Amino acid sequence: MINFKQLWTRKTLIGLGLGQFLSLLITATGFASSELAKKGIDAPTSQSFLNYVLLAIVYGSTALYRRQPLKAKWYYYVLLALVDVEGNFLVVKAYQYTSLTSVMLLDCWSIPSVMLLTWLFLKTKYRFKKITGVIVCVAGLVLVVFSDVHAGDRAGGSNPRKGDILVIAGATLYAISNVSEEFLVKNADRVELMAMLGTFGGIISAIQISVLERSELKSIHWSAGAALPFVGFALAMFLFYSLVPVLLKINGSTMLNLSLLTSDMWSVLIRIFAYHEKVDWMYFVAFGAVTIGLIIYSGGDKDEHQDPAIVDEDAERSKQDEEANAGSHSKGTVAESS
Q1: 1 Cβ partners below 8 Å, 6+ apart?
Q2: CB 267 within 8 A of CB 85
Q3: For 301, which DSSP code?
Q4: What pLDDT sits at residue 298?
Q5: Contact present, 178 and 256 (Cβ < 8 Å)
Q6: How far is CA 219 from the centre of its chain?
Q7: Are 178 and 248 in contact (CB under 8 A)?
Q8: Is residue 194 a contact partner of residue 245, using CB atoms and an 8 Å limit?
């Protein structure tokens, strides 16, 4: 049975609201990438470059003003930036080969990847219901792949299967990036994380652009129609990157990735009403599977891996209604998971 009093807490509502705002931002980046792909612009690293520059300027200046030493080793941020840049590259590149809807749906591959990584490295424990929910979500993912094979060129891209492979590879890198960010934001500092990610991400992107995309950028006929998707993508990504650490600290990586599943539904609305494209019937079956999996996951037991400050807050409230020995047991669990 689902305990709705436990579900509708302030923390849960903030997580859901913030998660849906992030979902809309991801949909906006997908829309911008799809628009650029339709114009024949193939510069995935260049799209993300401006985002990293904004992060470096805004958070880097804040970090310099603080004049505090780094709380984590600088080479951790280099590795994180490399994974993040390549994850963005693969997913944005996929828009050249497959549809907006497929990219959004296949992103749910990051959910089982995040769960595996948090279980291995952050010692997060997941109950049976949560695992069942994720399995159902992955079943929806498999349906999308079959839908692209079945629909062929109606899927909205030149090579849907190649696009699907790129998205799954990119989603795996996203999972590594999300789990790493969750660890760093809980053990280091959010401003430091964003500043270092922006700085090293910008450097790595600039090198990659000079090697892979220099000729592509020269061939672009710059106009408002070409520049606006670039700027829109960068601004949406900047807001997304700025708010992701907040949700990671409150609810963790799995909640973030589950919240982003609703971007699939926004992407279908864009595809139907903005692009006037046909959607294969298997997409709707996939939507049903993803939605059911999300409901099952939400109805499962809570993750044991939570932010210690939040858990302590909850423990203080529960002390008024619980016995002393139960309260001390809760504290012991928090210390152990930390």
Answers
A1: none
A2: no
A3: P
A4: 59
A5: yes
A6: 31
A7: yes
A8: yes
Per the listing, tokens 């709705």 go with 4
Nearest to 60 by CA among 248, 192, 150: 192
**Looking at the chain, how many residues does it have?**
338
pLDDT the model gives residue 239: 95
DSSP string, 138-167: HHHHHHHHHHHHHHGGGGSSS-HHHHHHHH
Q: Return the amino acid letter for 209.
A: I
The CA distances from residue 101 to 60, 141, 147, 303, in Å, are 35, 11, 11, 30
CA distance 147 to 283: 7
Give the whole-angstrom CA distance, residue 245 versus residue 21. Answer: 14
The residue whose two tokens read 């790595």 is: 204
What single letter denotes the amino acid at residue 189? D
Q: Which residue stretches of the chain have pLDDT < 50?
A: 1-2, 4, 153-155, 300-338
Q: Which of 177, 190, 199, 200 is nearest to 71 (CA)?
A: 190
Would you say 263 and 24 are in contact if contact means Cβ atoms under 8 Å apart?
A: yes
The two tokens of residue 335 are 């210390």
pLDDT value, residue 78 = 96
Two structure tokens written together for 252: 């963790």
pLDDT, residue 283, reads: 74
CA distances 131 to 6, 127, 174, 302, Å, are 20, 7, 20, 12
For residue 284, count other CB atoms closer than 10 A to its CB.
13
